[in-house]
Design brief:
The protein has about 325 residues and is of the alpha+beta class. It contains nine helices and 13 strands. α2 packs across α3, α5 packs antiparallel against α6 and α8 packs across α9.
Length: about 325
C-alpha cells in the first residue's frame, strides 16, 4: 500500500470536525476502520484521536474548568485492542430545552395549524403537541386558541375532505347577488387572519377561492368529489374574476407590502411616491392592508375598495368613542 501523504493543519481540522460525530455514531470502531474511512494512515488516526482529549467546551474565561469539559476516550481499549470509544462527548448529545414561554408559543401555533381541514386533523399533531409539552424546561402554560366565527365552517369542510364529498353553500361576493355553489374542496388557507376555501366550483367549472366569512348555509352533499386532485391556484395568481386595483404609498413602505407587490406594476415619481397596479381576488381584502400601514397606503381605485377601507376604519374608530 502506498504511503499516506502528510496532513496539513487544514486537513487535520476538517477531519476532526467530522471525526467526533462519526465516532459517537459508531459507538466502537477500530483504528484501522476509522483510518480507512477518512483516508489517513492508522498512525495519523491514532494521533488525532489522542488529541481529542485536549479539545472541549471553553469555560467563561476561555479555558476549561473541569475534566467534564473535555472529550475523553477509553484508553485501555485503545492501547490493548486498538478500538476507539468516546467516553465523554462534552454534551454534544444533549438537546437544548425550550423555555415554558417558547413551548407555549409553539403549542399555540400547532393548535392553529391543527384546525386547518385536511392538514391538522391527523395523529401527527397530537403527538407533536405532547412532545413539546414534555420537552420544555418548565411546564408550559395552558394554551387556548379562541374559536373564530368560521370554526363551524372549517369543521364541515374538514368532514367533506375526510368523507370525499362536495360542499354546498350560499356565497355572497362583494357587490354581487348571493349564489348557490357546489364545490369540491381542495385547500383551506389563512391569510391576514382570514380563512379561505379553494376548490373546484361546479357552477363556474373551474378552481375558485371563497372567503369563509361570506359563506352561509354550508352543508355536506352526497356528491362524490371528482376534482379533488385539481391544482389549486397560487395565492396571488390572477384569474378572470380578479379586480384591478391601484394603491399609492411612499416608496420606503414598499418592502412592507410583501407579496402584494410580487405581481404588481409599480411606478415611482421623483418625490419617492409609488403607485402600484395589481390584481386581487377580493377588493375588500385591501382594507387590512391599508389599516396595517397606519395611513401610509392609500387605495385609489376601485371606488368600492376605497369606500370599504374608509368604512372599516370608521367602524373601528367608533368602538373607542
Amino acid at each position: 500500500m502506498s504511503a499516506r501523504r502528510p496532513l496539513i493543519a487544514t486537513d487535520r481540522a476538517a477531519i476532526l470536525l467530522q471525526l467526533v460525530p462519526y465516532l459517537i455514531g459508531k459507538g466502537e470502531v477500530s483504528i484501522e476502520e476509522a483510518a480507512d474511512e477518512f483516508d489517513v494512515s492508522p498512525d495519523q488516526m491514532r494521533s488525532m484521536v489522542e488529541k481529542l482529549t485536549v479539545i472541549g467546551l471553553p469555560g467563561e474565561r476561555g479555558y476549561w474548568q473541569m475534566a467534564n469539559d473535555l472529550f475523553d476516550i477509553d484508553w485501555d481499549l485503545l492501547d490493548e485492542r486498538g478500538l476507539i470509544v468516546i467516553t465523554n462527548s462534552v454534551g454534544l448529545e444533549r438537546s437544548p430545552k425550550l423555555t415554558a414561554r417558547e413551548a407555549a408559543a409553539l403549542l399555540a401555533g400547532l393548535q392553529l395549524a391543527r384546525s386547518i381541514p385536511g392538514v391538522g386533523d391527523t395523529d401527527l399533531y397530537a403527538g407533536l403537541l405532547a412532545k413539546l409539552a414534555r420537552g420544555a424546561s418548565a411546564t408550559p402554560a395552558d394554551v387556548i386558541v379562541a374559536p373564530a366565527p368560521v370554526d363551524e365552517a372549517r369543521d364541515i369542510v374538514s368532514a367533506a375532505v375526510r368523507d370525499g364529498v362536495a360542499l354546498s353553500f350560499t356565497y355572497k361576493a362583494p357587490d354581487a347577488a348571493p349564489t348557490t355553489r357546489t364545490v369540491d374542496p381542495v385547500k383551506v388557507h389563512i391569510a391576514n387572519g382570514q380563512w379561505y376555501l379553494q376548490g373546484w366550483c361546479h357552477l363556474r367549472e373551474a378552481m375558485r377561492t371563497f372567503h369563509l366569512d361570506r359563506v352561509s348555509e354550508l352543508r355536506l352533499t352526497d356528491i362524490p368529489i371528482t376534482h379533488g386532485g385539481e391544482p389549486a391556484p397560487g395565492w396571488f395568481e390572477t384569474s378572470a374574476d380578479d379586480v384591478v386595483v391601484r394603491v399609492r404609498f411612499p416608496s420606503a413602505v414598499g418592502p412592507l407590502l410583501g407579496d402584494y407587490l410580487d405581481r404588481a406594476d409599480v411606478t415611482t415619481d421623483d418625490d419617492g411616491v409609488s403607485i402600484a397596479t395589481m390584481r386581487v381576488a377580493d377588493e375588500l381584502s385591501l382594507r387590512r392592508l391599508a389599516a396595517r400601514r397606519g395611513g401610509a397606503v392609500e387605495i385609489l381605485e376601485p371606488a368600492g375598495a376605497r369606500q370599504a377601507a374608509a368604512d372599516w376604519a370608521a367602524a373601528g374608530l367608533a368602538q373607542y368613542r
